[in-house]
Amino acid sequence: MTSTQTSTATGKFMNSAQLLEHWQGHRNLTRRVIEAFPEKDLFEFSLAGMRTFAKMAVELISIGGPALRGIVENKTDALDEEAFVPSTKEELLAKWDEETVVIHDYFNRIPEERFQESFNLFGQYEFPVYQNIMYFIDNEIHHRGQGYVYLRALGIEPPFFWERFAV
Amino acid sequence: MTSTQTSTATGKFMNSAQLLEHWQGHRNLTRRVIEAFPEKDLFEFSLAGMRTFAKMAVELISIGGPALRGIVENKTDALDEEAFVPSTKEELLAKWDEETVVIHDYFNRIPEERFQESFNLFGQYEFPVYQNIMYFIDNEIHHRGQGYVYLRALGIEPPFFWERFAV
Predict the structure, then answer these.
(1) Is residue A6 part of a domain?
(2) Contact yes or no for B130/A16 (Cβ under 8 A)
(3) Which of B109, B139, B149 lies closest to A47 in CB terms?
(4) Is the dihedral of CA A71, A75, A76, A77 positive or negative?
(5) Which residues of A touch B111 (CB under 8 A)?
(6) Shortest CA gap B70–chain A (Å)
(7) Does residue B161 belong to any structural domain of this protein?
(8) For residue B112, which residues of chain A lie inside 8 Å, CB to CB?
(9) Would the CB atoms of A50 and B9 count as touching at under 8 Å?
(10) Which of A165, B33, B64, B81 sits at a 20 to 30 Å CA gap from A91?
(11) Closest CA to B102 of B62, B153, B134
């Protein structure tokens, strides 16, 4: 490689507004996956001894908004997956929508330079902030992919993976 | 929000070298998921009428390297998922490793400004280059999450999701 080609890889890939839109697009798709489950199956169905999709969705809810609050407020409170225990799909979706606003607001309060700074997220995950945020998105896609298998096993066609902001 | 807070969201989130490392970390994990399947199950096992994990891995192979070649060489040849038909795990892993090098080399040949430019990938997916590349990674995490369900259904413990470059 020439030095010109090498220098390329240190340049900007995407900006933070684009990353936030990307994340919220994924969250919109995950919301539609939650909706696609029959109420009973959302809370009871699983494969291979894994968690129900409701449990996975609660995990996602317990990460995104609380993590961004921690980053913005420099707090290292532990991750708490027991703070929210929904008993209906409606309750789960309502909380999901609340967190959509929290994520939007708190993400936009992170000063640009902090994305590259290290932070001890939840008092446990000491990584650059951008890596922690990428992890939230990766983790959501990972579990949602598992939700797709659950839906197919239930004979339900999942939403198109590539449609992010469709309603 | 104040104007200072709003301006934050247009700043740099991560650079392209970090994105490439992130992607190759995911590819390293996917490689270990392929390895975790017994040879026969890799090519024959599936749940809910879905594809085998070998088919999913071939899809991933048919996207990453060929897409980057298309972007760098400004070619819009169609996606071809039939070009590589492995019959053994060894063959699949060898091709995976070849593509690791292709992805490294071609990603580093993309000039920084092109990530924000639109390109008609495979003559079919007209999006900014950064969005197409994010999609490759998302798609890999999505299908690998499904592979995790297959492994668990087979009674096999998958690799840790958060270990990317472990061997």
Answers:
(1) no
(2) no
(3) B149
(4) negative
(5) 8
(6) 17
(7) no
(8) 8, 11-12
(9) no
(10) A165
(11) B62
Averaged confidence pLDDT in chain B: 93
Estimate to the nearest angstrom the gap between the alpha carbon of B31 and the chain centroid.
Answer: 11
Among B29, B23, B25, which residue's Cα sits nearest to residue B147?
B29
* Average pLDDT of the residues in B90-104: 98
Show which of residues 3-42 on chain A sit within 8 Å of chain B, judged by CB atoms. Answer: 5-6, 8-20, 22, 26
Contacts of A103 (CB under 8 A, 6+ apart): A20, A23, A24, A27, A64, A65, A68
pLDDT single digits (tens) A101-158: 999 999 999 999 999 999 999 999 999 999 999 999 999 999 999 999 999 999 999 9
In a domain, A124, yes or no: yes
**CA separation (Å) from A5 to A20, A60, A109, B133?**
28, 38, 34, 18
Chain B residues touching A28 at Cβ < 8 A: none
- From residue B16, how far is each of A5, A150, B108 by CA, in Å? 12, 35, 9
Q: What is the CATH number of the domain that holds B35?
A: 1.20.120.450
- A48 three-class SS: coil
Instruction: Write down the ipTM of this complex.
Output: 0.93
| Distance of residue A13 Cα from the nearest chain B Cα, in angstroms | 5
Residue B148 domain-assigned?
A: yes
Q: For residues A30 and A52, give the distance between their C-alpha atoms in angstroms, rounded to a whole number.
A: 14
Is the Cβ of A107 closer than 8 Å to some Cβ of chain B? yes
Residue of A nearest to B6 (CA): A108
B103, two tokens: 């992805």
Question: With contact defined as beta carbons under 8 Å apart, do B139 and A112 qualify?
Answer: no
- Taking the CA of residue B85 and the nearest CA in chain A, the distance in Å comes to 24
Q: Residue A94 is part of which domain span? A: 33-153
CB of A124 less than 8 A from some CB of B: no
Three-state DSSP state, A142: helix
Q: How many domains does chain B have?
A: 1
Say what angle helices B129-153 and B16-36 make with each other, to 10 degrees. Answer: 20
